[in-house]
Design brief:
Length: about 575
Amino acid sequence: MAGKCGACGPGYPSPLEAMKGPREQLLYLPCIYQNTGISIPDFLATVDVDPKSPRYCQVIHRLPMPNVGDELHHSGWNACSSCHSDPTKSRNFLILPSLISSRIYIVDVGTDPRAPKLHKVVEAEELARKGNAAFPHTSHCLGSGEILISCLGDPDGNGKGTFILLDGETFEVKGNWEKGGKIPNLGYDFWYQPRHNVLLSTEWGVPKILAQGFDPRDVEKGHYGRRINVWDWSGRRLVQELDLGSGSIPLEIRFLHDPSAAQGFVGCALSGQIQRFHRNSEGKWEAEKVIEVPSKKVQGWLLPEMPGLITDILISLDDRFLYFSNWIHGDVRQYNISDPKNPKLVGQVFVGGSISKGGAVTVLEDQELQDQPEPCVIQVKIPKLSSRFFPDFWKFPTLMLLFRGKNSQKLQFSPQSRGWDFPGFRGSGSGIFGIQGKQNPGGAADAAAEPGRAAPLREHVAVQRLGPAVLPRPHQGGLGAAAAGRGHGAGGAGRESRIPAGFREGAGRALPGARDALPGGGLHLRHLAVIPEIWEFWECLGMGTALPTSGCDPTGIPGMFGDVEMGDCTSNTCL
């Protein structure tokens, strides 16, 4: 394996070295039943993604959680490339925080990677007792061997942008990461960059408000976020706040992978902006808008204007391209960021969304498109189901070496989905699209960049059924019920799943845990610099964490998976 030492710990010495690694052969998919009306536990699915395997694209193992109502969300690893020089470290456990129950599941994927088993459960009471924290969200492994997890609030469902530390060996809660001082009112994602002595965190919303579904009036009341919070990494104290404007709701945040670059991007969901953050000559951090997706004036929707709702962003390992998904409009975009101050749109594909032709929404005024995009239809192999129509939304894109492609996955958080009313979810469940292209050093400024380009009909795409649709029911609660100690009724183990499962974000960023500190303080995403020439589509399982069967320890990159023959590709596993 290129770049590997004779005796070393997990990962690679650099993100670019990781791009030379082998292809993933296993995929771990967190699947949820929350808000489906089916009271059985969420589970972790293991999928064989080795094209040479007779069980290629099949679920080979399911690990149910021991409780009902968790809502598995982001996930991460117990060890990362920060420990690359330490041969005693191994990436052999998945960290699965639960957004509703506030539990954290530790899953052993090292003993038998094809049949993970539950190792430990960190109960919500421990987070509350040792850190007055709840609703854990983003998990990152640290160079110290500890695990850092951001939280959305306190045990009562109030907003609180706090962090907790887990011991990397015992997985005991060690307490809060921050050392006194002011704590932000809200929390969500974070990214740390030791070389620049900084951690940046973002803000989503007040947990008990999020549980009620989206209401625009809650934005006006200040229940949703608007800031990047700047922390002194070594001092563990909040030192600066960057106000991105009312209604911005900054979610996913990314540094460039170059460890010397003190800059990156954050996606602002509701305002439809990508803001570039950077450190100025005086050592202070600043943010500026560099991309804006204009809202569309519509009829037949929740509001008279429909935002794109940017929900996830990614940067290629070589820092050449930025990718993000517009959750409601339904498109995935690629920008050339060779000049970070002036990103250039070089690729755009619609894979669903709420503005497709023939739907309930009529676009009255559009600053970008001449016409509403065609609906995305994919022919599949499932008996009694000749095609799948995807009218709804795509949340978590990721880049993987698994198939030199880009993927998008439905659903962010089930109670919030109520506010947007995506009827296509009611019977069909969620799924994954892969967007695949040929390697092209010139970028993707061809047909893929044409506004409103329809997804082609893709024949013979195998779709694996995992469980129920992820659809919030209007009568069901969420974080509010969890905060009040409710919502964990008896499970219905043994009930047969009949429709595709809801998939939750895995350990990749998409996938948090996809960003670990490198030796020397660098940070990276486990994502390939894909330069599509022609975009293609497929739909399959869901998203999760890919696991290689060779090289370093049983480790891997988180990501999402789509099912077609992908051809020759390499992997950035072990990052």
